Amino acid sequence: MEIDVETDEIVKEFLVESSENLDQLDRDLVMLEEDPSNGPVLASVFRTIHTIKGTCGFLGYGKLESVSHVAESLLSRLRDGSLTLTPEITSALLATTDAIREILASIESQRTEGDGDYSALVTTLTALQTAPEGDAAAGSDTPADEPVVLLAEP
To answer: Residue 79: is it exposed, middle or buried by C-beta count within 10 angstroms (0-12/13-18/19+)?
Structure first.
């Protein structure tokens, strides 16, 4: 029984911390939209998603881990300069924060990740990881690494 109480406290802390971090992430995405080359802000966005991904994996929230993992992979490519932030990427990242908020709300109210299907978002985030031909960020002759996509069963 003590393990359940301890786990419940960890989940509560995770929900509060994630909510606060997502509020900052929303502000950071607006700043990035205005200045896509702002490295410290991009690093902050990456850290937020990375933290959520790591913690939800530890807590066993596979659906949330899948969404945050593919978003982290996209952010990693932005951070290393192999992609440049575009309006499409910004929209997908904003959709990711919405999806994460939905999943977190379900965890808070029902203690489950809910019935939401985020496979289309995962597909979009995955597709955006490959710079299209002619993109300024695609200047490298080496092929992009294949992104890892985890689709957890509900």
So the answer is: middle
Residuewise pLDDT in 10s, the chain (154 residues): 344 777 889 999 999 999 999 999 999 999 999 999 899 999 999 999 999 999 998 899 999 999 999 999 999 999 999 999 999 999 999 999 999 999 999 999 999 999 999 999 999 999 999 866 334 333 333 334 444 444 444 4
Record the tokens describing residue 46, joined without a space: 């990456």
This prediction has a pTM of 0.81
Distance separating alpha carbons of residues 116 and 101, to the nearest angstrom: 12
Buried b (16+ CB within 10 A) or exposed e, 47-56: bbbbbbbebb
Pick from 103, 43, 107, 52: nearest CA to 75: 43
Task: List CB contacts of 44: < 8 A, sequence separation 6 or more.
Answer: 24, 25, 28
C-alpha span between 88 and 8 (Å, rounded): 37
Domains of the chain: 2-130 (1.20.120.160)
